[in-house]
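Supplementary Note 2. Why include the ligand at all?

Several targets in our set were suspected to adopt different conformations when bound, so apo predictions alone were not considered sufficient. For every target with a known small-molecule partner we therefore ran a joint prediction. The input for guanosine-5'-diphosphate-alpha-D-mannose is given below.
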Amino acid sequence: MKVVIIIPTYNEKGNIERLIEILENKIFPTIRNHDMNILVVDDNSPDGTDNEVRKLMRKWKNINIIQGEKHGLGEAYVRGMTFASQNLGAEIMFEMDADLSHDPNKIPEFLKNIEDGYDMAIGTRYSGGGSIPSNWGLSRKIFSIFGNLLVRAILMRFKIHDWTGRFRAMRKEVYLKEKNELTAFRGYTFQVSFLHKIVREGFKIAEVPIHFTDRTLGRSKIAPKEYIIDLLKYIIIARTIELIHSPFLKYAITGFTGYVINAVALEIFKSKLGFHSGLAASSGAEMSIIWNFLVNNFWSFSSQRIKSRVKFFYKFLQFNLISFGSLVIIGVVVSIGTHLFGDIGIIRQIFLVVAIGLVIPYSYTMYNIFIWKRWRISLLTKLQAALG
Ligand code: GDD
Ligand code: MN
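The joint prediction is reproduced in C-alpha coordinate form.
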Protein backbone atom coordinates (compact mmCIF):
# COMPACT_ATOMS: atom_id res chain seq x y z
CA MET A 1 0.00 0.00 0.00
CA LYS A 2 1.07 3.59 -0.45
CA VAL A 3 2.25 4.94 2.88
CA VAL A 4 2.88 8.64 3.52
CA ILE A 5 4.67 9.72 6.69
CA ILE A 6 3.52 13.24 7.47
CA ILE A 7 6.08 15.24 9.40
CA PRO A 8 5.18 18.79 10.47
CA THR A 9 8.15 21.06 10.99
CA TYR A 10 8.78 24.42 12.47
CA ASN A 11 12.49 25.20 12.85
CA GLU A 12 13.68 21.62 12.71
CA LYS A 13 16.88 22.09 10.74
CA GLY A 14 19.29 19.35 11.74
CA ASN A 15 16.55 17.15 13.17
CA ILE A 16 14.68 16.69 9.90
CA GLU A 17 17.87 15.72 8.07
CA ARG A 18 18.74 13.11 10.68
CA LEU A 19 15.21 11.70 10.70
CA ILE A 20 14.93 11.48 6.91
CA GLU A 21 18.31 9.76 6.66
CA ILE A 22 17.32 7.17 9.23
CA LEU A 23 14.01 6.57 7.46
CA GLU A 24 15.56 6.26 3.98
CA ASN A 25 18.69 4.33 4.87
CA LYS A 26 17.58 2.18 7.73
CA ILE A 27 13.83 1.77 7.98
CA PHE A 28 12.37 1.87 4.46
CA PRO A 29 14.70 -0.81 3.05
CA THR A 30 13.33 -3.29 5.61
CA ILE A 31 9.72 -2.67 4.53
CA ARG A 32 9.16 -4.61 1.33
CA ASN A 33 5.39 -4.80 1.05
CA HIS A 34 4.61 -1.08 1.08
CA ASP A 35 5.47 1.97 -1.00
CA MET A 36 7.03 4.29 1.60
CA ASN A 37 6.91 8.12 1.23
CA ILE A 38 7.60 11.22 3.26
CA LEU A 39 5.63 14.48 3.35
CA VAL A 40 7.13 17.40 5.25
CA VAL A 41 4.61 20.11 6.19
CA ASP A 42 6.76 23.12 6.89
CA ASP A 43 5.34 26.42 8.10
CA ASN A 44 7.93 28.61 6.41
CA SER A 45 10.49 27.92 9.12
CA PRO A 46 12.87 30.88 9.34
CA ASP A 47 15.83 28.56 10.00
CA GLY A 48 15.74 27.14 6.48
CA THR A 49 14.31 23.72 7.32
CA ASP A 50 12.84 23.62 3.81
CA ASN A 51 16.23 24.00 2.10
CA GLU A 52 17.55 21.05 4.02
CA VAL A 53 14.55 18.99 2.89
CA ARG A 54 14.90 20.10 -0.73
CA LYS A 55 18.54 19.02 -0.71
CA LEU A 56 17.47 15.55 0.41
CA MET A 57 14.70 15.50 -2.23
CA ARG A 58 17.38 15.45 -4.90
CA LYS A 59 18.76 12.25 -3.45
CA TRP A 60 15.47 10.44 -2.77
CA LYS A 61 12.41 10.74 -4.97
CA ASN A 62 9.88 9.65 -2.35
CA ILE A 63 10.10 12.91 -0.38
CA ASN A 64 7.58 15.78 -0.72
CA ILE A 65 7.27 19.14 0.94
CA ILE A 66 4.42 21.61 1.24
CA GLN A 67 4.76 25.00 2.87
CA GLY A 68 2.35 27.49 4.33
CA GLU A 69 1.66 30.09 6.97
CA LYS A 70 2.09 29.09 10.59
CA HIS A 71 -1.39 28.46 12.04
CA GLY A 72 -0.46 25.85 14.61
CA LEU A 73 0.21 22.15 14.57
CA GLY A 74 -3.34 20.87 14.11
CA GLU A 75 -3.85 23.03 11.08
CA ALA A 76 -0.54 21.84 9.63
CA TYR A 77 -1.71 18.25 10.02
CA VAL A 78 -5.03 18.89 8.34
CA ARG A 79 -3.19 20.44 5.42
CA GLY A 80 -0.73 17.54 5.33
CA MET A 81 -3.44 14.87 5.39
CA THR A 82 -5.45 16.62 2.72
CA PHE A 83 -2.42 16.82 0.45
CA ALA A 84 -1.36 13.24 1.19
CA SER A 85 -4.75 11.82 0.30
CA GLN A 86 -5.63 14.11 -2.63
CA ASN A 87 -2.29 14.67 -4.31
CA LEU A 88 -0.18 11.72 -3.27
CA GLY A 89 -2.83 8.99 -3.23
CA ALA A 90 -1.90 7.91 0.28
CA GLU A 91 -3.60 4.76 1.55
CA ILE A 92 -1.99 4.85 4.95
CA MET A 93 -0.95 8.07 6.68
CA PHE A 94 1.46 8.47 9.55
CA GLU A 95 1.77 11.38 11.94
CA MET A 96 5.26 11.77 13.32
CA ASP A 97 7.33 14.46 15.04
CA ALA A 98 10.46 15.71 13.30
CA ASP A 99 12.65 15.91 16.39
CA LEU A 100 13.37 12.16 16.78
CA SER A 101 11.21 11.91 19.87
CA HIS A 102 9.37 9.19 17.96
CA ASP A 103 11.50 6.12 17.34
CA PRO A 104 11.42 5.35 13.58
CA ASN A 105 12.13 1.68 14.38
CA LYS A 106 8.52 1.39 15.53
CA ILE A 107 7.08 2.11 12.08
CA PRO A 108 6.89 -1.56 11.02
CA GLU A 109 4.93 -2.37 14.18
CA PHE A 110 2.36 0.31 13.34
CA LEU A 111 2.07 -1.10 9.82
CA LYS A 112 1.70 -4.62 11.15
CA ASN A 113 -1.39 -3.57 13.10
CA ILE A 114 -2.93 -1.98 10.04
CA GLU A 115 -2.19 -5.11 8.02
CA ASP A 116 -3.89 -7.11 10.76
CA GLY A 117 -7.10 -5.18 10.14
CA TYR A 118 -6.90 -2.20 12.48
CA ASP A 119 -8.05 1.12 11.04
CA MET A 120 -5.62 3.04 13.14
CA ALA A 121 -2.56 2.41 15.31
CA ILE A 122 -1.59 4.93 17.94
CA GLY A 123 1.62 5.18 19.93
CA THR A 124 1.05 5.00 23.67
CA ARG A 125 3.38 6.18 26.41
CA TYR A 126 1.02 5.14 29.20
CA SER A 127 0.37 1.44 28.71
CA GLY A 128 1.92 -1.83 27.67
CA GLY A 129 5.44 -0.74 28.62
CA GLY A 130 5.47 2.64 26.87
CA SER A 131 7.15 5.55 28.65
CA ILE A 132 7.76 9.28 28.88
CA PRO A 133 11.32 10.66 29.24
CA SER A 134 12.73 10.20 32.74
CA ASN A 135 14.57 13.50 32.40
CA TRP A 136 11.37 15.50 31.96
CA GLY A 137 10.79 17.99 34.78
CA LEU A 138 8.21 17.05 37.39
CA SER A 139 5.69 19.59 36.16
CA ARG A 140 5.84 18.35 32.57
CA LYS A 141 5.45 14.76 33.78
CA ILE A 142 2.45 15.64 35.93
CA PHE A 143 0.99 17.72 33.13
CA SER A 144 1.25 14.85 30.67
CA ILE A 145 0.11 12.00 32.94
CA PHE A 146 -2.65 13.96 34.64
CA GLY A 147 -3.81 15.49 31.36
CA ASN A 148 -4.32 12.06 29.84
CA LEU A 149 -6.15 10.72 32.88
CA LEU A 150 -8.41 13.76 32.83
CA VAL A 151 -9.24 13.26 29.17
CA ARG A 152 -10.07 9.60 29.76
CA ALA A 153 -12.19 10.34 32.82
CA ILE A 154 -14.17 13.27 31.44
CA LEU A 155 -14.78 11.73 28.05
CA MET A 156 -15.49 8.40 29.79
CA ARG A 157 -13.33 6.57 27.31
CA PHE A 158 -10.89 4.34 29.10
CA LYS A 159 -9.70 1.97 26.43
CA ILE A 160 -7.24 4.44 24.96
CA HIS A 161 -4.40 5.39 27.25
CA ASP A 162 -2.57 8.07 25.29
CA TRP A 163 -4.78 10.80 23.85
CA THR A 164 -2.24 13.54 23.35
CA GLY A 165 0.56 11.63 21.67
CA ARG A 166 1.31 12.23 18.05
CA PHE A 167 2.87 9.07 16.71
CA ARG A 168 -0.02 7.53 14.80
CA ALA A 169 -0.88 5.66 11.64
CA MET A 170 -4.29 5.42 10.01
CA ARG A 171 -5.99 4.14 6.91
CA LYS A 172 -7.11 6.85 4.53
CA GLU A 173 -10.74 5.80 5.16
CA VAL A 174 -10.45 7.16 8.68
CA TYR A 175 -9.30 10.53 7.44
CA LEU A 176 -11.92 10.62 4.66
CA LYS A 177 -14.70 9.89 7.13
CA GLU A 178 -13.58 12.57 9.57
CA LYS A 179 -12.21 15.25 7.32
CA ASN A 180 -15.36 17.35 7.18
CA GLU A 181 -15.72 17.21 10.90
CA LEU A 182 -12.37 18.64 11.88
CA THR A 183 -13.21 21.05 14.66
CA ALA A 184 -12.08 24.52 15.49
CA PHE A 185 -9.62 22.98 17.93
CA ARG A 186 -6.61 23.03 15.75
CA GLY A 187 -3.67 23.68 18.04
CA TYR A 188 -2.30 20.82 20.08
CA THR A 189 -5.88 19.96 21.11
CA PHE A 190 -6.52 18.78 17.56
CA GLN A 191 -4.95 15.47 18.55
CA VAL A 192 -7.60 14.78 21.17
CA SER A 193 -10.62 16.02 19.26
CA PHE A 194 -9.66 14.10 16.13
CA LEU A 195 -9.14 10.85 18.03
CA HIS A 196 -12.38 11.38 19.95
CA LYS A 197 -14.35 11.48 16.71
CA ILE A 198 -12.58 8.40 15.41
CA VAL A 199 -13.34 6.47 18.62
CA ARG A 200 -17.01 7.49 18.52
CA GLU A 201 -17.24 6.40 14.92
CA GLY A 202 -16.30 2.89 16.06
CA PHE A 203 -13.08 2.49 14.09
CA LYS A 204 -10.76 -0.30 15.25
CA ILE A 205 -7.81 1.18 17.07
CA ALA A 206 -4.62 -0.56 18.24
CA GLU A 207 -2.13 0.85 20.71
CA VAL A 208 1.60 0.53 20.12
CA PRO A 209 3.75 1.08 23.23
CA ILE A 210 6.49 3.65 22.55
CA HIS A 211 9.34 5.20 24.49
CA PHE A 212 9.11 8.93 23.95
CA THR A 213 12.59 10.48 24.12
CA ASP A 214 13.35 14.14 24.57
CA ARG A 215 14.67 16.12 21.62
CA THR A 216 18.42 16.85 21.66
CA LEU A 217 18.28 19.71 19.14
CA GLY A 218 16.09 22.81 19.07
CA ARG A 219 13.17 23.76 21.30
CA SER A 220 9.73 22.37 22.00
CA LYS A 221 6.97 24.59 20.61
CA ILE A 222 4.39 23.46 23.10
CA ALA A 223 2.66 26.23 25.11
CA PRO A 224 1.46 24.40 28.25
CA LYS A 225 -0.94 27.01 29.61
CA GLU A 226 -2.74 27.56 26.34
CA TYR A 227 -2.77 23.80 25.78
CA ILE A 228 -4.40 23.00 29.13
CA ILE A 229 -7.10 25.64 28.72
CA ASP A 230 -7.88 24.55 25.17
CA LEU A 231 -7.91 20.92 26.14
CA LEU A 232 -10.22 21.47 29.11
CA LYS A 233 -12.52 23.53 26.96
CA TYR A 234 -12.70 20.79 24.38
CA ILE A 235 -13.30 17.83 26.70
CA ILE A 236 -15.90 19.65 28.79
CA ILE A 237 -17.85 20.99 25.82
CA ALA A 238 -17.65 17.71 23.92
CA ARG A 239 -18.79 15.68 26.91
CA THR A 240 -21.65 18.09 27.69
CA ILE A 241 -22.90 17.80 24.13
CA GLU A 242 -22.65 14.02 24.33
CA LEU A 243 -24.65 14.00 27.56
CA ILE A 244 -27.34 16.26 26.13
CA HIS A 245 -27.69 13.92 23.16
CA SER A 246 -27.56 10.81 25.30
CA PRO A 247 -30.61 9.59 27.21
CA PHE A 248 -29.06 10.74 30.48
CA LEU A 249 -30.61 14.18 30.65
CA LYS A 250 -34.06 12.86 29.74
CA TYR A 251 -33.63 10.10 32.27
CA ALA A 252 -32.76 12.69 34.94
CA ILE A 253 -35.80 14.83 34.10
CA THR A 254 -38.04 11.76 34.16
CA GLY A 255 -36.60 10.73 37.52
CA PHE A 256 -37.21 14.18 38.97
CA THR A 257 -40.83 14.33 37.80
CA GLY A 258 -41.23 10.80 39.16
CA TYR A 259 -40.07 12.03 42.52
CA VAL A 260 -42.65 14.85 42.46
CA ILE A 261 -45.40 12.36 41.58
CA ASN A 262 -44.30 10.17 44.48
CA ALA A 263 -44.44 13.07 46.95
CA VAL A 264 -47.81 14.42 45.76
CA ALA A 265 -49.40 10.95 45.59
CA LEU A 266 -48.26 10.21 49.13
CA GLU A 267 -50.12 13.27 50.44
CA ILE A 268 -53.27 12.58 48.41
CA PHE A 269 -53.46 8.93 49.45
CA LYS A 270 -52.89 9.88 53.05
CA SER A 271 -55.13 12.94 53.57
CA LYS A 272 -57.79 12.55 50.88
CA LEU A 273 -58.19 8.76 50.83
CA GLY A 274 -57.22 8.04 54.41
CA PHE A 275 -54.50 5.46 53.63
CA HIS A 276 -52.10 4.37 56.35
CA SER A 277 -48.82 6.42 55.95
CA GLY A 278 -46.75 3.38 54.98
CA LEU A 279 -49.28 2.21 52.41
CA ALA A 280 -49.65 5.77 51.06
CA ALA A 281 -45.88 6.02 50.63
CA SER A 282 -45.47 2.71 48.86
CA SER A 283 -48.49 3.35 46.63
CA GLY A 284 -46.94 6.69 45.71
CA ALA A 285 -43.63 4.95 45.02
CA GLU A 286 -45.31 2.44 42.72
CA MET A 287 -47.00 5.24 40.80
CA SER A 288 -43.63 6.85 40.39
CA ILE A 289 -42.15 3.55 39.18
CA ILE A 290 -44.90 3.16 36.58
CA TRP A 291 -44.38 6.76 35.44
CA ASN A 292 -40.60 6.28 35.19
CA PHE A 293 -40.95 3.07 33.24
CA LEU A 294 -43.39 4.51 30.72
CA VAL A 295 -41.65 7.85 30.16
CA ASN A 296 -38.20 6.28 29.95
CA ASN A 297 -39.47 3.74 27.46
CA PHE A 298 -41.25 6.21 25.20
CA TRP A 299 -38.92 9.17 25.60
CA SER A 300 -35.51 8.79 27.30
CA PHE A 301 -34.63 5.44 25.76
CA SER A 302 -36.95 5.73 22.76
CA SER A 303 -34.24 4.50 20.38
CA GLN A 304 -34.35 1.21 22.28
CA ARG A 305 -38.12 1.20 22.88
CA ILE A 306 -39.70 -2.05 24.09
CA LYS A 307 -42.56 -2.88 21.77
CA SER A 308 -43.87 -6.40 22.20
CA ARG A 309 -46.53 -6.77 24.87
CA VAL A 310 -45.03 -9.85 26.51
CA LYS A 311 -41.62 -8.26 26.70
CA PHE A 312 -43.14 -5.07 28.00
CA PHE A 313 -44.70 -6.91 30.92
CA TYR A 314 -41.55 -8.88 31.65
CA LYS A 315 -39.38 -5.77 31.49
CA PHE A 316 -41.77 -3.94 33.79
CA LEU A 317 -41.28 -6.64 36.43
CA GLN A 318 -37.50 -6.36 35.97
CA PHE A 319 -37.83 -2.60 36.30
CA ASN A 320 -39.64 -3.02 39.61
CA LEU A 321 -36.85 -5.26 40.85
CA ILE A 322 -34.26 -2.62 39.97
CA SER A 323 -36.40 0.03 41.68
CA PHE A 324 -36.53 -2.17 44.73
CA GLY A 325 -32.73 -2.01 44.70
CA SER A 326 -33.01 1.80 44.82
CA LEU A 327 -35.33 1.55 47.85
CA VAL A 328 -32.80 -0.68 49.60
CA ILE A 329 -30.00 1.81 48.88
CA ILE A 330 -32.08 4.69 50.27
CA GLY A 331 -33.15 2.70 53.32
CA VAL A 332 -29.62 1.58 54.15
CA VAL A 333 -27.99 4.97 53.62
CA VAL A 334 -30.58 6.88 55.66
CA SER A 335 -30.41 4.28 58.46
CA ILE A 336 -26.64 4.49 58.64
CA GLY A 337 -26.74 8.31 58.55
CA THR A 338 -29.32 8.65 61.32
CA HIS A 339 -27.60 5.97 63.37
CA LEU A 340 -24.29 7.86 63.21
CA PHE A 341 -25.46 11.47 63.39
CA GLY A 342 -28.86 11.40 65.12
CA ASP A 343 -32.40 10.82 63.92
CA ILE A 344 -33.40 14.40 63.18
CA GLY A 345 -35.02 15.98 60.13
CA ILE A 346 -31.97 17.68 58.68
CA ILE A 347 -29.84 14.53 58.94
CA ARG A 348 -32.54 12.44 57.27
CA GLN A 349 -32.77 14.93 54.41
CA ILE A 350 -28.99 15.16 53.97
CA PHE A 351 -28.64 11.39 53.79
CA LEU A 352 -31.61 11.14 51.47
CA VAL A 353 -29.69 13.41 49.08
CA VAL A 354 -26.57 11.25 49.53
CA ALA A 355 -28.64 8.16 48.75
CA ILE A 356 -30.15 9.74 45.64
CA GLY A 357 -26.59 10.55 44.55
CA LEU A 358 -25.99 6.80 44.56
CA VAL A 359 -29.35 5.81 43.13
CA ILE A 360 -28.94 7.97 40.00
CA PRO A 361 -25.83 6.18 38.64
CA TYR A 362 -27.10 2.83 39.96
CA SER A 363 -30.42 2.88 38.15
CA TYR A 364 -29.03 4.53 35.01
CA THR A 365 -26.46 1.76 34.77
CA MET A 366 -29.03 -0.98 35.40
CA TYR A 367 -31.42 0.46 32.80
CA ASN A 368 -28.67 0.64 30.24
CA ILE A 369 -27.49 -2.87 30.86
CA PHE A 370 -30.67 -4.81 31.65
CA ILE A 371 -33.76 -2.94 30.52
CA TRP A 372 -32.96 -1.00 27.37
CA LYS A 373 -29.63 -2.75 26.68
CA ARG A 374 -27.60 0.12 25.30
CA TRP A 375 -24.45 -1.04 27.03
CA ARG A 376 -22.85 -4.38 26.55
CA ILE A 377 -20.77 -5.72 29.33
CA SER A 378 -18.34 -8.17 27.79
CA LEU A 379 -18.38 -10.37 30.89
CA LEU A 380 -22.17 -10.62 30.80
CA THR A 381 -22.19 -11.32 27.08
CA LYS A 382 -19.72 -14.13 27.64
CA LEU A 383 -21.78 -15.49 30.48
CA GLN A 384 -24.94 -15.39 28.38
CA ALA A 385 -23.13 -17.11 25.53
CA ALA A 386 -21.87 -19.80 27.90
CA LEU A 387 -25.38 -20.41 29.18
CA GLY A 388 -26.66 -20.70 25.63
N1 GDD B 1 4.21 22.84 10.57
C1 GDD B 1 4.23 23.05 11.88
N2 GDD B 1 3.58 24.13 12.40
N3 GDD B 1 4.87 22.19 12.69
C2 GDD B 1 4.87 22.42 14.02
C3 GDD B 1 4.22 23.51 14.61
C4 GDD B 1 3.55 24.41 13.73
O1 GDD B 1 2.94 25.40 14.16
N4 GDD B 1 4.40 23.44 15.96
C5 GDD B 1 5.13 22.32 16.18
N5 GDD B 1 5.44 21.72 15.02
C6 GDD B 1 6.19 20.45 14.80
C7 GDD B 1 7.57 20.45 15.39
O2 GDD B 1 8.49 20.96 14.49
C8 GDD B 1 7.77 18.97 15.66
O3 GDD B 1 8.16 18.27 14.52
C9 GDD B 1 6.38 18.48 16.06
O4 GDD B 1 5.48 19.42 15.49
C10 GDD B 1 6.18 18.41 17.58
O5 GDD B 1 6.47 19.67 18.15
P1 GDD B 1 7.29 19.84 19.50
O6 GDD B 1 7.42 21.28 19.75
O7 GDD B 1 8.55 19.02 19.47
O8 GDD B 1 6.25 19.21 20.52
P2 GDD B 1 6.61 18.51 21.90
O9 GDD B 1 7.67 17.51 21.73
O10 GDD B 1 6.79 19.53 22.95
O11 GDD B 1 5.23 17.80 22.18
C11 GDD B 1 5.07 16.42 22.07
O12 GDD B 1 4.26 15.99 23.11
C12 GDD B 1 2.94 16.50 23.06
C13 GDD B 1 2.13 16.14 24.27
O13 GDD B 1 2.40 14.89 24.73
C14 GDD B 1 4.51 16.11 20.72
O14 GDD B 1 4.58 14.73 20.44
C15 GDD B 1 3.09 16.54 20.59
O15 GDD B 1 2.56 16.02 19.41
C16 GDD B 1 2.30 16.02 21.78
O16 GDD B 1 0.98 16.51 21.69
MN1 MN C 1 9.16 17.33 20.51
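The first helix runs from residue 15 to 27. The two ends are 42 Å apart (CA to CA). Comparable summaries for the other entries are listed in the accompanying table.
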